[in-house]
Write a structure and sequence with these properties.
- The protein is an alpha+beta fold.
- It is built from 16 helices and 39 strands.
- Strands 13, 14, 15, 22, 27, 28, 35, 38 and 39 form a 9-stranded mixed β-sheet that branches. The chain has a 6-stranded mixed β-sheet with strand order 3-2-1-4-11-12, with helices on both faces. A 4-stranded parallel β-sheet has the order 6-5-9-10, sandwiched between helices.
- Strand 9 (155-158), helix 5 and strand 10 (185-188) form a beta-alpha-beta unit.
- Helix 9 (260-276) crosses helix 14 (485-492) and helix 10 crosses helix 11 (399-414).
- The longest helix is centred in the first third of the chain and has 31 residues, at 198-228.
- The chain starts with a strand and ends with a strand.
């Protein structure tokens, strides 16, 4: 039987499969089918393991949520309606006064996800203390639901003021809607995000509601196709926060899975860092469409509590106020348009640019010979001799087509040679990717010189050494199976269930017993969920957390619960001082939320370099580096045993990626099967 991880990217679908009996790890890369991703998944699984009945466990990372909000072809959001308090129908349109373009007089806010005519305000009010001061007008809810249901509305979002304190009105409204429209999806803010701040809670509920039928349909279709092929195992989905859950949990809270795919790579880096005893790591994932960076500190990916989906990206970060807020934890990632398939172009002012457009999987870079005519980063690497004739997926590269595309669209407009143009494309790509690395290190208060750069993805190891020099990192690790390392992250991920409850009180008004009762209830619920999924009690660990802030602050800080309110406050002041440079111990602290994370530990595959192997030297070829052409040795990655040393300049070819060792660098194979590069 096999345990399989499947990561669907913009260009390739990556598959890692573990033979449960022999512990052998296999990989497969197939071109992604963007309009019908399940089709590409099934094709890759057949090639990887044969009959799907052999698969015991399938773990999947999906970007379908991101694709919908970015307007990808074939994914349309469903028709939805919002039920809220009278007078608050426009909360998702008013939002916050965050201006993405501060000095732009023509700036307009993102278009509301639910239009004004399908937003209904009904009578009923609950105070911030949870007291009902006006009963809910259930008949108004029924009328709105009946009207919308007759017009084909598939999703109803219910979000009332202070439902985090008292959800009774939302529950009454949801019941009335289900009576009037039994087939509709009904989402309540109190179940999705029981926390203060009505705009963020409503926005999260709306995003969750819009995604629910989309993710549900996608997963139902995928499961149906898998079953027809003989699959009888269990399907798990990766969350944005780095844990895996069963399909039912994913369908209930789809907004927690928007960054599912990119998170898997950070999980793999965290796992490998713990194995190797590395305290500070940077995950650098360069695929076909984008490049992503993450920071891992003491074996744990850095987590942020909210993000904006569908927003504009500048220098690797989503511009605040340009998208739709979602309050679910996710791994902190910076993403830039600098993948292997990213298109290079010359702007009207004669400046070289790359992105945001990508050649994707179809037609792909010009060198694929599938009709693409625009030059990409992959074409530049091929012209400079850095890539072999055939890459992952059996794609044969044509240097003549890459040369022609760069000549006609870059070299001629800039008045340079084709080689110079290709080198300029590589340099610009490295600069853009360097910004992403700085965002997850310097912007977070970390010194990148203390970090080890983990380079993976189909194109990451090609740029790793030059990127490390760009950002001041002296040590690079190319992990085993670098081209499918994110998919490997799915196999090393643990189950993760989070449950949280609103407190919203001054710490001085909360007793230890009260807090303990709430935490014990959440912990029991989370543990019970894992046990229902078949996780053994001995494999479950829990973590208690508190979201707190100084009274009057807008945003919270998450700290571990220390067993009592007093000790937790001491930890809050300490963490606040470490994060922001100050603490105000005489100020009141508000405990906004308490959380419990239940982790179900999974068996991990063994990662080891072979003790003995054959002769890895394949030959030589001319490769362009800084300063000109060099005669570089070419090696077979699979034939390199533990301790094998490579002196640059060299090219190391793996089935799923290509590793570049520039002049002045050397590489050595570690015990865990990684290639360590140092100057």
């Amino acid at each position: 039987m096999y345990r399989v991880g499947v990561d669907v990217g913009g260009t390739f679908t990556d598959i890692v499969f573990l033979n449960e009996e022999t512990s052998e790890l296999g990989i497969m890369k197939v071109p992604t089918t963007p309009r019908e991703p399940a089709k590409g998944i099934l094709a890759g699984l057949r090639m990887a393991v044969g009959p799907l009945v052999k698969i015991d466990l399938l773990i999947h990372a999906t970007t379908i949520g991101t694709n919908m909000f970015l307007g990808q072809i074939g994914i349309e959001p469903p028709r939805a309606a919002l039920i809220t308090n009278a007078g608050f129908e426009d909360v998702i349109e008013i939002g916050r006064q965050n201006r993405p373009s501060l000095y732009d007089p023509n700036f307009s806010k993102p278009k509301p996800l639910i239009p004004r005519k399908r937003r209904y305000g009904v009578r009923g009010r609950i105070t911030s203390e949870g007291r009902v001061i006006e009963e809910l007008d259930v008949e108004e809810v029924r009328k709105a639901a009946s009207r919308e249901c007759s017009e084909g509305t598939r999703v109803f979002v219910v979000s009332f003021l202070h439902s985090y304190r008292n959800p009774s009105h939302e529950e009454q409204a949801a019941e009335a809607i289900r009576d009037e429209c039994p087939t509709a999806y009904v989402v309540t803010g109190s179940r999705v995000d029981p926390a203060p701040m009505e705009y963020e809670r409503t926005s999260t509920a709306v995003v969750n509601g819009l995604l629910k039928p989309v993710l549900s349909s996608y997963l139902e279709d995928l499961v149906s196709r898998l079953r027809r092929e003989g699959f009888e195992g269990k399907l798990l989905i990766m969350q944005s926060s780095g844990g895996i859950v069963e399909v039912g949990e994913a369908v209930e809270r789809p907004a927690a899975f928007i960054e599912s795919g990119p998170s898997a790579g950070a999980v793999a880096v965290a796992y490998f860092s713990r194995l190797a005893g590395i305290e500070y790591s940077i995950g650098f994932d360069m695929g076909g469409t984008t490049a992503k960076a993450s920071s891992i500190v003491r074996g744990e990916p850095e987590i942020v509590e909210s993000y904006e989906v569908g927003g504009k990206v500048h220098m690797g970060r989503v511009i605040r106020g340009s998208g739709y807020p979602v309050r679910f934890p996710h791994i902190d990632l910076a993403e830039v348009s600098a993948g292997g398939g990213t298109i290079a172009w010359v702007d009207p002012g004669g400046g070289l640019r790359i992105g945001p457009k990508s050649a994707g999987a179809d037609p792909g870079p010009a060198c694929y010979g599938r009709g693409g005519a625009e030059p990409t980063v992959t074409d530049a690497n091929l012209v400079l001799g850095r890539l072999p004739e055939t890459i992952s997926g059996g794609i044969r590269l044509r240097r003549d087509l890459a040369w022609r595309a760069i000549r006609d669209m870059i070299a001629k407009p800039l008045g340079v040679t084709v080689v110079e143009a290709a080198w300029m494309i590589i340099g610009l790509a490295n600069t853009v990717m360097g910004r992403a690395v700085r965002l997850v290190t310097l912007e977070r208060g970390h010194d990148p010189r203390l970090f080890t750069l983990f380079a993976f993805g189909g194109a990451g190891p090609l740029h790793a050494a030059e990127l490390a020099a760009e950002v001041g990192v002296s040590r690079v690790l190319v992990p085993p199976r670098p081209g499918v390392f994110s998919a490997l992250g799915l196999l090393v991920a643990d189950y993760k269930v989070e449950r949280h409850a609103s407190i919203a009180k001054r710490a001085g008004d909360i007793s230890d017993d009260e807090l303990e009762r709430v935490l014990a209830r959440l912990e029991a619920e989370a543990v019970r969920t894992l046990q229902d999924w078949g996780v053994e009690p001995g494999s479950i660990v829990t973590r208690r957390l508190v979201d707190a802030k100084y009274w009057g602050q807008a945003y919270t800080l998450r700290v571990p619960y220390q067993g009592s309110v007093e000790r937790t406050l001491e930890e809050f002041h300490r963490v606040h001082a470490a994060r922001y440079g100050f603490s105000v111990e005489e100020e009141d602290v508000e405990i906004v939320l308490v959380r419990v994370e239940a982790i179900g530990l999974t068996r991990k595959p063994l990662l080891r370099a072979p003790k003995q192997a054959g002769d890895p030297l394949k030959g030589e070829r001319e490769v362009f580096f800084q300063g000109g052409w060099h005669n570089a040795a070419v090696y077979d990655y699979n034939a390199m045993a533990e301790g094998y040393r490579v002196e640059g300049p060299a090219v190391i070819e793996a089935p799923d990626s290509t590793i570049l060792v520039p002049p002045g660098y050397h590489g050595i194979v570690t015990e865990l099967g990684a290639l360590e590069l140092e100057r």
